[in-house]
């Protein structure tokens, strides 16, 4: 059985966001095909996009025996479980789970792009991810997460400490 290391981003700005992120990590942990290897601190971040409340963001490293498509399906199932309703693009959400990396794969399908196409410009992704995977190499740019993180403006990304709830 092949096990693939992956990275995901978590975000929430509706409801009890800290609890939602904790419960999302617990749901991933409970999936028999997914191991949660590491989780970043929690960050309060200024929302990029339409005006809306600040967002709680974090990242996690996983190992999975699922295909990238099946892992995305599991992420979408967990989002739905937390009542995510899609309205405007980049609007407020109870839970957003993005697949950032699936090993060193490059996937460009309509429903799945990996590495996540916007991760290189996102301080709210790169700062938490650099905590847990500084040496991970982005297969598209060839750069490490640490060097991508050093290139973004950290303004508006404030650490809040451990996510808590899940160990
Ligand atoms: N790497 C990926 N991770 C998560 N969803 C992806 C990915 N690539 C493509 N998608 C597709 O995008 C859809 C999710 O769009 P969504 O509305 O959550 O975007 P968003 O997270 O608000 O914005 P952004 O994609 O800029 O982070 C999913 O239904 C999925 O099919
Ligand atoms: N701060 C912040 N801004 C965003 C976020 C997010 O998770 N955090 N997600 C977006 C679309 O996924 C768009 N804008």
From TrEMBL:
Enzyme Commission numbers on file: 2.7.6.3
Name of one Pfam family that matches: HPPK
PROSITE patterns: HPPK
Gene3D superfamilies per the UniProt record, alphabetical: 7,8-Dihydro-6-hydroxymethylpterin-pyrophosphokinase HPPK
Domain 7,8-dihydro-6-hydroxymethylpterin-pyrophosphokinase: 89-100
UniProt pathway annotation: Cofactor biosynthesis; tetrahydrofolate biosynthesis; 2-amino-4-hydroxy-6-hydroxymethyl-7,8-dihydropteridine diphosphate from 7,8-dihydroneopterin triphosphate: step 4/4
Keywords assigned by UniProt, alphabetized: ATP-binding, Folate biosynthesis, Kinase, Nucleotide-binding, Transferase
Any one GO molecular function term: 2-amino-4-hydroxy-6-hydroxymethyldihydropteridine diphosphokinase activity
Catalytic activity: 6-hydroxymethyl-7,8-dihydropterin + ATP = (7,8-dihydropterin-6-yl)methyl diphosphate + AMP + H(+)
Official protein name in the record: 2-amino-4-hydroxy-6-hydroxymethyldihydropteridine diphosphokinase
């Amino acid at each position: 059985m092949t096990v693939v290391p992956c990275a995901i981003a978590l975000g929430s700005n509706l409801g009890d966001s800290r609890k939602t992120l904790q419960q999302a990590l617990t749901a991933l942990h409970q999936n028999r095909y997914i191991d949660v290897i590491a989780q970043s601190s929690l960050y309060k971040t200024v929302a990029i996009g339409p005006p809306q409340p600040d967002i709680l963001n974090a990242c996690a490293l996983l190992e999975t025996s699922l295909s990238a498509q099946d892992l995305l399906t599991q992420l979408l199932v967990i989002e739905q479980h937390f009542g995510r309703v899609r309205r405007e693009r980049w609007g407020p959400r109870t839970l957003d789970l993005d697949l950032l990396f699936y090993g060193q794969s490059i996937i460009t399908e309509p429903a799945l792009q990996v590495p996540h196409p916007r991760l290189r410009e996102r301080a709210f992704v790169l700062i938490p991810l650099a905590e847990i995977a500084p040496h991970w190499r982005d297969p598209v740019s060839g750069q490490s997460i640490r060097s991508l993180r050093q290139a973004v403006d950290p303004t508006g990304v404030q650490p809040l400490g451990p996510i808590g709830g899940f160990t």
